[in-house]
From TrEMBL:
<feature type="binding site">
    <location>
        <position position="641"/>
    </location>
    <ligand>
        <name>L-glutamate</name>
    </ligand>
</feature>
<keyword id="KW-0812">Transmembrane</keyword>
<dbReference type="GO" id="GO:0038023">
    <property type="term" value="F:signaling receptor activity"/>
</dbReference>
<protein>
    <recommendedName>
        <fullName>Glutamate receptor ionotropic, NMDA 2B</fullName>
    </recommendedName>
</protein>
<keyword id="KW-1071">Ligand-gated ion channel</keyword>
<dbReference type="InterPro" id="IPR015683">
    <property type="entry name" value="Ionotropic_Glu_rcpt"/>
</dbReference>
<dbReference type="InterPro" id="IPR028082">
    <property type="entry name" value="Peripla_BP_I"/>
</dbReference>
<comment type="similarity">
    <text>Belongs to the glutamate-gated ion channel (TC 1.A.10.1) family.</text>
</comment>
<dbReference type="InterPro" id="IPR001508">
    <property type="entry name" value="Iono_Glu_rcpt_met"/>
</dbReference>
<feature type="domain" description="Ionotropic glutamate receptor L-glutamate and glycine-binding">
    <location>
        <begin position="394"/>
        <end position="452"/>
    </location>
</feature>
<feature type="transmembrane region" description="Helical">
    <location>
        <begin position="580"/>
        <end position="605"/>
    </location>
</feature>
<keyword id="KW-0472">Membrane</keyword>
<feature type="binding site">
    <location>
        <position position="468"/>
    </location>
    <ligand>
        <name>L-glutamate</name>
    </ligand>
</feature>
<dbReference type="Pfam" id="PF10613">
    <property type="entry name" value="Lig_chan-Glu_bd"/>
</dbReference>
<keyword id="KW-0813">Transport</keyword>
<feature type="domain" description="Ionotropic glutamate receptor C-terminal">
    <location>
        <begin position="390"/>
        <end position="747"/>
    </location>
</feature>
<feature type="transmembrane region" description="Helical">
    <location>
        <begin position="508"/>
        <end position="529"/>
    </location>
</feature>
Amino acid sequence: MHIYLAILSTLCKEFLQFNVSAILYMMNNEQFGHSTASAQYFLQLAGYLGIPVISWNADNSGLERRASQSTLQLQLAPSIEHQSAAMLSILERYKWHQFSVVTSQIAGHDDFVQAVRERVAEMQDHFKFTILNAIVVTRTSDLMELVNSEARVMLLYATQTEAITILRAAEDLKLTGENYVWVVSQSVIEKKDAHPQFPIGMLGVHFDTSSAALMSEISNAIKIYGYGVEAYVSDPANRGKKLNTQSLSCEDEGRGRWDNGELFFKYLRNVSIEGDLNKPNIEFTADGDLKSAELKIMNLRPSANNKNLVWEEIGVWKSWETQKLDIRDIAWPGNSHAPPQGVPEKFHLKITFLEEAPYINLSPADPVSGKCLMDRGVLCRVAADHEMADIDVGQAHRNGSFYQCCSGFCIDLLEKFAEELGFTYELVRVEDGKWGTLENGKWNGLIADLVNRKTDMVLTSLMINTEREAVVDFSEPFMETGIAIVVAKRTGIISPTAFLEPFDTASWMLVGIVAIQAATFMIFLFEWLSPSGYDMKLYLQNTNVTPYRFSLFRTYWLVWAVLFQAAVHVDSPRGFTSRFMTNVWALFAVVFLAIYTANLAAFMITREEFHEFTGLNDSRLVHPYSHKPSFKFGTIPYSHTDSTINKYFKEMHYYMKQHNKSSVADGVADVLSGSLDAFIYDGTVLDYLVAQDEDCRLMTVGSWYAMTGYGLAFSRNSKYVQMFNKRLLEFRANGDLERLRRYWMTGTCRPGKQEHKSSDPLALEQFLSAFLLLMAGILLAALLLLLEHVYFKYIRKRIAKKDGGHCCALISLSMGKSLTFRGAVYEATEILKKHRCNDPICDTHLWKVKHELDMTRLRVRQLEKALDKHGIKTPQLRLASSSDLLNHHLKERPPLLGNLSLAASAQDLYRCY
């Protein structure tokens, strides 16, 4: 506090009295502690007063730029940006692409990290850096983050005292040695006094902070001030604006800030003075930093007598040159003769897998070379460990029962891991072929290999669940999944009532009950009442009228024929009104058929039916015996799906045992063939198989159950978990996982875009409704035939004695005809031909014929008597008997009386009847 008061008193009471227009702040102290904080306070106070400062501070990198942005400062010393750029140039020189940043809580540590990030972003076009960690060390345990990462190159920014503590802890954590490089800033090197705690081979950046260098910079500062004053005064725009600060005061009286200070600072900032030999002019950026700077590259190595370590200059970094860095021989960490790789040393992993498309596919290797082609993936062992004893490896590679080629999503992901992390691996298939579940209290399959530490990692479509997480370590999930249900579409099925579906029930009832009945009765009524239409009395009285056939049933026949536009013979009405009504009905039929036909096409197309389950908790699955017949569905035993169902749905699990399959391919094939109604398994696997189905007959239904993810599995407390997790997050962030998913998860089936195959013949199911309609018509016709027989056998004989056929003829001409004399004659003739007359109908008809014959004979006698009275002799003719009339009817017409023929007599008989 006393220091701050002294600075405030000096600046306010002494500097302002001398009319100070700029302050030269020059010092070569490199303590980066108390003095840096005081310098920060001084610069902030000068900035508050608006007085420009020309400075050269050996510890300028410790100044917090965010806190000093309001200051009007020109810095002649290399900035923190220069130091970070020089440190990254060293990394670029030796192709160290990844590194970590370690800082203490030194003033300006945030600015250092930010400067490094900005420089990395600028260099991304020609050299890609990856910042693995950015650690602020408040206690030595913070360095554990480096232990768990792949960091082998560290940029250290701290004071020398703090660096000693940090590096001591790093040595204890084995973060020093021939595989680790520490690159430090000037604040760590300070006065080139190397501490014995520092590891050999450290690299650093530094600039000359000697007294001679300080005196040279004072000379440059005076030149800058002089040139700035000259430019300010020479500018006509500044007339009357004096460089006078006597009116400034730190107290309440007077001005608190110099109005012309910022204007004068711009002139100072624009000054350009000649630099030393072979160096560019001294110029400044908009922030007041040097545009061009030179830094020395330092290397910590043994002294000539090997008694202690010294910082030796091994090169130089010049910001203005194209090849900024010039380095000579370096003493590398651990006295190595070659630079470290900058990445973790290669390690070997045994990786266990279980095939499942599209994550891992198996295919045979080349039988000649025993290698996998480019599109076949990598070689993997499918034989158990005991089978490999006394086997020649070269020959085993050519044998498909020992080695095959693995490819798929997980293999591509593994290749990316191997490239990024730098390890080798051996792929081995799990011996028992199981995914890993608890069986009789013991783990089997993939999980058992991890629990027993027979493998380092499991890589396949292994689902993460709580039971597995309790015994092994999982990485971050690389893909989300859940339990899904796949079913098959049953194509080519049309509803048997599809021809009725264009209209709803109400519409059909309106057409059938109202429209057809109304049209029929109106046409028949108008025809019956029309003067030129059907008049029964006029027809019977006028024998010259051409026989005209029309009745209610024939009107129905007309209405139905017009409605369906049937090419059949119909009896049309004669009346004008009834004909007009018939045309109105025909217009209705045209509109009706157009609407019906247009909509029928939509309902007669092939329909896709499937079992639409809502999900795993569908009641038809949870309680399979509640649905009759029960659905057939299954899964893979000892899988995550199987264990989940066993845990939450006991009844379902017990029922499924009889339908479980050994592989997903078998399950899907049975669904397609109809042996299974559904197959339950991992959602992403089923989605892939659905996409691979060329006929697009498969589909997943319902929502996914027990959402989880696929992860890499490691033995408990494995040291590899963190490094794989970090890479997984990077792959997800940069889109690599999504690109792999799109490549491997697509297939030939495109829902919604399936092309119509016009060459496929229509199956019977596609027009089954037409056959059903025909069958229904045949059955209805058979029923009508039965009713006709019932009528002729039991009903007609009772009606014939009461009705002359007139009323029945209005309804049906055929029914009326069966009750008339002529119909009776036809029927009696047929009966006599067969010599049968054993029913009352026959007796009635014979009685009628005999009665008419007797009446005819009586009339003949009356006519003979009349002729005799007039003296006319009657011809000798034989009157035919009733049997002759019946036997010769329609064959020949025997003369009855003169020109009287049987046909005329029949007409008379009919008229009398």
